[in-house]
Amino acid sequence: MIEFIKGNPARLYAIAATILALVAHYVRDLPDVLILAVVAATLGIGESVQRLEDTKTREAGADVPTGTVSGP
Q1: How many DSSP H helices and E strands does the chain contain?
Q2: Cβ atoms of residues 50 and 17 within 8 Å
Q3: Which of 54, 19, 55 is nearest to 39 (CA)?
Q4: CA distances for 3 relative to 6, 8, 13, 62, 68, angstroms
Q5: 52-to-13, 22, 26, 60, 61 alpha-carbon distances in Å
């Protein structure tokens, strides 16, 4: 399970953000402050996920010798 989480953080983040939006929409009795706090935390987690994905992309590109990838 931990390997799946480490391998797919963007997918899990998208699921969590979607669930958060649905709960905020359908559960009317939630205080606005609570919703805003969870949204702020979600944005912070999103930044961490972005940095992790950037690192994975850089590491994957490090294996490609210079000049072997053709551009548009």
Answers
A1: 3, 0
A2: no
A3: 19
A4: 5, 8, 15, 22, 31
A5: 12, 26, 32, 12, 14
> What's residue 28's pLDDT?
87
Model confidence at 7, pLDDT cuts 50, 70, 90, reads: confident
Q: Please, what is the end-to-end C-alpha distance for the chain in angstroms? A: 39
Task: Tell me how far apart the alpha carbons of residues 45 and 39 are, in angstroms, rounded to a whole number.
Answer: 10
DSSP structure class, residue 39: H
Task: List pLDDT tens digits, range 14-72.
Answer: 888 889 889 988 998 989 898 889 888 888 888 888 888 888 888 887 666 666 655 55
Q: Which residue has tokens 């010798």?
A: 65
